[in-house]
Design brief:
Radius of gyration: 21 Å
Distance between the termini: 43 Å
Largest sheet: 5 strands, antiparallel
Strand order of the largest sheet: 1-3-8-5-6
Structural class: mainly beta
CATH architecture of the largest domain: Sandwich
Number of helices: 1
Helix content: under 10%
Number of domains: 2
Number of strands: 17
Strand content: over 45%
Order of helices and strands: HEEEEEEEEEEEEEEEEE
CATH topology of the largest domain: Immunoglobulin-like
Shape: globular
Length: about 240
């Protein structure tokens, strides 16, 4: 009886380790789409397989209140799928320890100003209890009544989001003057440089991994041709 008790005690202690060993994490802290009527946005979703096993996931469901004029597509690399019509075709395979960086959500804003949210639920094809969820929000704005405070002569730049951030933060941008050199610099609260990111004119999002930063307040600055344009605050939490 005593040996049996010790055995079950060890099982109870090891259970959290087993669960942790099976973990696949969504590193993106909620995908957010915000834009004008009729526009289309693409956002990266970062997923990491923290286990020592290869895992394959299928899209189980798309839930939420997507409007009748909004459309979402799931892209793996350059191949995109409509989850309402091609649910069975959407499959993700992650090698042990792999950080997946070529998964995207493509969102068409539609023709009506509105906001909402939706979830994508993925399930392990070999274990139906092994599930992860990608959460997304959207806000469609009417440009005729919107004042864009961040529309500069050479670039349109969003605030960083989410803010506060836990794992990843993101900027949305459009470079209007292709000859300008744009970059984002991040500094600590006391002004020490932390990172610099060149803005690629061929892209419209800049994802930043903040999971390695200590919790606290940071400042990010937009530079155009090395000229300081604007500085704002970024809060990192754990």
């Amino acid at each position: 009886m005593k040996r049996l008790l010790i055995f079950f005690t060890w099982l109870w202690l090891l259970a959290p380790l087993v669960v942790r060993a099976q973990q696949v994490r969504v590193l993106s802290d909620g995908v957010e789409f915000r834009g004008d009527l009729g526009s289309v946005q693409r956002k990266t979703v970062f997923i990491q397989n923290e286990t020592s096993q290869t895992k394959t996931y299928l899209l189980k469901s798309l839930r939420g209140n997507i409007g009748s004029s909004q459309k979402v597509k799931i892209c793996i690399g350059e191949q995109c799928f409509d989850p309402k019509k091609e649910l069975a075709k959407i499959k993700l395979t992650l090698a042990p320890g792999e950080l997946l960086t070529d998964l995207y959500l493509n969102f068409e804003m539609g023709i009506a100003a509105t906001r909402g949210s939706f979830d994508l639920s993925f399930v392990n094809e070999n274990n139906l209890r092994d599930v992860f969820v990608v959460e997304a929000r959207y806000e469609v704005e009417d440009p005729s009544i919107k004042v864009d405070k961040f529309d500069y002569d050479d670039i349109v730049l969003s605030d960083v989001y989410p803010n506060p951030s836990v794992r990843t933060a993101q900027f949305d941008y459009t470079i209007k003057n292709q000859s300008v050199k744009a970059r984002i610099s991040i500094n600590s609260f006391i002004g020490n440089p932390v990172a610099n990111y060149e803005l690629d004119p061929g892209r419209n999002t800049l994802p930043i991994n903040v999971s390695d930063l200590n919790p606290g307040i940071y400042f990010y600055t937009l530079f155009l041709d090395n000229k300081n344009i604007v500085t704002k605050k970024l809060v990192v939490k754990k």
